[in-house]
Amino acid sequence: MKATKQELEDFRSGQKALRAEIKRVKKALSRAKKTVRQEETRIRKLETAIGKHYYREYIRGSAGNPERYERLCRRISDSKEALQAGISGRDALTLQITAARQELKDRKRAFRAGPVPEIILE
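Structure (tokenized):
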């Protein structure tokens, strides 16, 4: 049995909406990946700064400035928390894309199969 014109239009509009949703989520995923990369870079730079500060103090033979270490360590901790949040968000968006793609396939398969006849039980 062929689909009616209205059924075909409904199917196409549904598929178009899902594709638009996938595109929107992909953009959000791209931003999340960028955030993760930025946080990883920030952590590496802060860890390098701690190392340089420590080495400078070692060469001078002084005890160092504990407040500076504490500030840098606090910033690293904050960046690591932001990194974990970014990773969680990235993973959630990836799952959302996968689910939307599967829904596209399922809808297409169901549409091609045609309407399911109703069974009347008496």
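Residues 5-110 form one domain. The helical segments are 5-60, 66-113.
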